[in-house]
UniProtKB/TrEMBL annotation:
Lineage of the species this protein comes from: Bacteria, Pseudomonadati, Pseudomonadota, Alphaproteobacteria, Hyphomicrobiales
Protein name (record): Efflux RND transporter periplasmic adaptor subunit
Signal peptide: 1-23
Pfam families in alphabetical order: Beta-barrel_RND, BSH_RND, HH_MFP_RND, RND-MFP_C
Highest taxon, organism lineage: Bacteria
Residue ranges annotated for the Multidrug resistance protein MdtA-like barrel-sandwich hybrid domain, each copy included: 57-193
Length: 390
């Protein structure tokens, strides 16, 4: 019996050894990733949804009536100012111009004849061969003939202008719509819309701002010595679109309406952005970030370091001995990839940035300190948790 116990004790000890090691490991504080908050100069941003609109938009109409004869563009193409777009049947206007030129020549001949008659009458009056009344009549005829020439010249100029108007050209640079009227249709002067052209570069972005944030923008502009109503105060904006692969487009506020809408309590603002690659299109929705403050010192932390306790947002702070405590915080907007903290932290704390599920107030953890970059594009990757788990 004694020999049996001696022979089995080593095996029993080997079996119990892993259990004791596991018990010791289970009692060790769980690992978490910690870091100091980022402290840097920032400017608050507000976000709004708006829509892009062209700076200039023209509805192309004909200045003269007639049958549409030719269309000289492809639907949707980019056009330059002066490019030929449409041609109206020119034959009636060419005939009208010939008639006006003929009437002008006749009026000029009448002036020549009246001038000769006037000179002859002046000589005869001096010699006593004609009366003064006849001289006055010849002078009246000459003046009337000159007026007829001016009228004929105006008619000819108008006929020439009408003939030029049969060729309809692009009034601005931009992208043209489809042809709304096909060749062969009758066009009414100044009424029929043939197509539309919109400019694309630069392009405007319109959005509505409520009263509270409008007053904040105005205060920010005044702090820079600018006026929100004049040139938008020069406030910087960033506009993002639905395509996540496109980087934000930058621009500046350049206009604010002169009154608040009584029904909505909002004011419409406009930002102007460069669009050299013509990515932005009129009617496209976007989300704009607007500078809502002057530069100030701020405390920033990652979104994933923020927990919740009932209706409060909290951050877990780790002490020098590894103990965990929860601090309520008041959150702000998202800046430079972080969340702005308005109240609750002074920036000297060491906070849990990864592994919140293993941190509990009153317990202890094994902290692994990292340094957060001043700016980041995304969140801290989950690979940190996997590394700690291993």
């Amino acid at each position: 019996m004694r020999n049996w116990l001696i022979s089995t004790l080593p095996g029993l000890f080997l079996c119990l050894l892993p259990l004791s090691v596991l018990a010791q490991d289970a009692a060790a504080p769980p690992p978490v990733t910690v870091a100091k908050p980022v402290i840097r100069d920032v400017v608050d941003n507000d976000e709004f949804v708006g829509r892009f609109e062209s700076v200039d938009e023209v509805s192309v109409r004909a200045r003269v009536g007639g049958y549409l004869q030719e269309v000289h563009f492809t639907d949707g193409m980019l056009v330059k100012k002066g490019d030929l777009l449409f041609v109206i049947d020119q034959r009636p206007y060419a005939i009208a111009l010939e008639q006006a030129d003929a009437e002008l020549q006749s009026a000029e001949a009448t002036v020549t004849y009246a001038a000769a008659q006037l000179k002859r009458a002046e000589r005869l009056v001096k010699s006593g061969g004609q009366t003064v009344e006849t001289l006055d009549e010849r002078r009246r005829e000459w003046i009337s003939a000159q007026a007829s020439v001016r009228a004929a010249q105006a008619t000819a100029d108008r006929a020439k202008l009408d003939l030029e108007y049969t060729k309809i050209t692009a009034p601005i640079d931009g992208r043209i719509d489809r042809a709304l009227i096909s060749a062969g249709n009758l066009i009414q002067a100044d009424q029929s819309i043939l197509t539309t052209i919109v400019t694309l570069d630069p392009i405007d972005f319109y959005f509505d701002v409520d009263e509270r944030r409008l007053l904040n923008f105005a205060r920010t502009a005044r702090g820079r010595g600018d006026d929100l109503q004049v040139g938008g105060g020069g406030v910087e904006v960033r506009v993002t679109i639905a395509d996540s692969d496109e980087k934000p487009f930058t621009g500046k506020l350049d206009f604010a309406e002169n009154r608040i809408d009584r029904e909505t309590g909002t004011m419409r603002l406009r930002a102007r952005l460069d669009n050299p690659q013509l990515i932005l299109q009129p009617g496209l929705f976007g989300r704009v970030e607007v500078e809502a403050s002057n530069t100030y010192r701020a405390i920033l932390i990652p979104d994933e370091s923020i927990g919740s306790d009932q209706n409060e947002r909290v951050v877990y702070v780790v002490g020098a001995d590894g103990s965990v405590s929860a601090k309520p915080v008041r959150l702000g907007s998202r800046l430079h990839g972080y969340r702005l903290i308005h109240d609750g932290l002074d920036g000297s704390e060491t906070i849990v940035v990864n592994g919140l599920m293993r941190a509990r107030p009153g317990s202890k953890v094994t902290p692994k300190l990292i340094e957060l970059p001043q700016t980041r594009e995304g969140a801290v990757p989950d690979a940190v948790d996997l590394e700690l788990a291993q």
